[in-house]
Design brief:
By secondary structure, the protein is of the alpha+beta class. The chain has one domain (about 1-100). The chain contains 2 helices and 4 strands. It has helices spanning about 1-5, 85-100, and strands at about 10-20, 25-40, 45-55, 70-75. The chain has a 4-stranded antiparallel beta sheet. A hairpin with a 5-residue loop joins strand 2 and strand 3 (about 45-55). The longest helix is centred in the C-terminal third of the chain and has 14 residues, at about 85-100. It is elongated and about 50 Å long. The two termini are about 30 Å apart.
Length: about 100
Amino acid sequence: MWATILAGTPLGTIEFALPARQGQATRPVRQAVFAKTLSLPDGASGQLSVTGLIAQEINAPAGCKPVEWRLLTNRAADSYSHLSPETLLNAAEAAANAAGFTVA
């Protein structure tokens, strides 16, 4: 499934500063954002329409593991305008809440 998403054309890019952590200084991160609507079995002989999102780091510095995140949501995200940070955070929070987690 994830390979199918990455086979498409990126919808755009995002940039942010990755905070310092043990043994690594703060550094800029630039990611290509991919999204694709998929149909998955729903477990009841039907199909569930979902959107898979992947943000994959472009040109990570030598010696640094590239930053990549993945999100599977029931929310539509077929254009870059649907991928605002607020929209993505709302989708992630809704998924966490549905799974019984509390998002601080």
